[in-house]
Design a protein that fits this description.
The protein is an alpha/beta fold and 278 residues long. It folds into two domains: 157 residues, 3-Layer(aba) Sandwich (Rossmann fold); 107 residues, SIR2/SIRT2 'Small Domain'. The strands form two sheets. The chain has a six-stranded parallel β-sheet with strand order 3-2-1-7-8-9, sandwiched between helices. Helix 8 runs parallel beside helix 9. The longest helix has 18 residues. The relative contact order is 0.23.
Amino acid sequence: MTLAPERDGTLAEVLDVLAARPLVVLTGAGCSTDSGIPDYRGPNSPARMPMTYQEFVSGSQAQQRYWGRSHLGWGRMKGAEPNAGHRALARIDTELLITQNVDGLHERAGSRRVVALHGRIAEVVCLACRAVTTRTRLHQRLSELNPGFAERHRLAEVRPDGDVELDDTRDFVVAGCEDCDGVLKPHVVFFGENVPADRVARCYAAVDRLVETGGALLVAGSSLTVMSGFRFVRRAAKAGTPVVIVNRGTTRGDELAAYRLDTGTSEFLTALAAARRG
C-alpha cells in the first residue's frame, strides 16, 4: 500500500499506519534530548560549528582545542541514560534501527539490530596504528595529565557535539596512543569524512526489503539536514515505501513523507510500542 505524499497526521492515524508493518527506523539527535543531550537543530538549539576532519588533522593546536573541549563535555555527558523513547524502540522489533547518534543509548536500552552510522563516541581510534580503545580509559588519562582543568572550567556550557563552549585550551595536555604515540581521534565520523561503505550498504539493503514486505520507514527526531540519513528517506520514497516523519519542527524530508507528526519522540515511540504490542 502506497500512501499519498506528505500531510500532517494525527497520532491515531500514524499509529494505525505503523502498528502492523515491518519497520526500519532512522533516529537523530531529537531522540536523545530527553536524556539531557542537547539537540542540533531543534527550536531552542544553540548554534554549532563542529570541527571538521580536515581541521582536526591539521595539527596539534586543533587537536588540543578539540580534546580540551571534548574532555569536559564527556565528563558531563557520559552519565546520560536511555530515555523512554530509547526503551520503547528496544521493545519494537524493528527490521533495522539506523541511528545518526553517537551516544550509544539505543544499544544500552537493549536494541539489537543497530547501525550507528557515525560511530560511537565511547570509543577512540589511533590514526596511526588504528588501535581502538575506550573513551573511559582516555578520560582517565586526560584527567591525570590535566589536574584541576575540569574544576576550573566547570561552568562551561555543554554543546550538542558532546564538547563545551571554551575558547582557551592552550594549557591542555593531549594524550597520544598508548601503543604507538599516534594521534587519537574519537571513533566517530567527523564532518568531511565518509560513513563507511559497509554501514551504508547494510542500511540500503534493509530499506530495499521494505518494498517486498510492505513495510515503512520511520524517521524519529531528525531534521534530515545531513545527507548520511536523508539518503535513506529518498531511497524509500522513490521505491514507493511509506515514509513517516516524527520530529519537532520541519525537516528536509517533509515533502517525501506520507505522514509527518510534530511531537516529541519519547511520547510517540512509547505509544507506538504499546500499539504494536496490542
